[in-house]
Specification:
Elements lengths: L1 H21 L19 H31 L33
């Protein structure tokens, strides 16, 4: 299940990147706007790409949340405080020995 969701998540990310790169730049700061010509008008294309981007982004966020929930429910401790305490082996003292003070000459 998690592998399938991860594959869908990656495909959504790639589709989202592609749809964003296809959109026409309105700022023109780089001087490379989208070229004219196509089967749809500029306004119709912009509306279609905007809706597609919104849908893909919503699906991407949903898969991100589901993957985070699934990763959190793996049975591992949620916090370092929840981890079982480690005990010293039976042959060793529980506390380290105090350093010895050197004798003065």
């Amino acid at each position: 299940m998690m592998t399938f969701l991860l594959v869908v998540h990656i495909l959504l990310a790639l589709a989202l990147i592609g749809v964003i790169l296809v959109q026409r730049s309105e700022g023109g700061a780089l001087g490379i706007g989208g070229g004219g010509g196509g089967f749809m008008s500029a306004r119709g294309t912009a509306n279609l790409l905007t809706r597609t981007t919104a849908i893909l982004a919503a699906l991407f966020i949903c898969t991100s949340i589901v993957l985070a929930i699934l990763a959190g429910n793996r049975g591992t401790p949620r916090s370092i405080l929840d981890a079982p305490a480690t005990q010293a082996p039976a042959g060793l003292p529980a506390q380290p020995a105090q350093p010895q003070v050197p004798l003065s000459k």
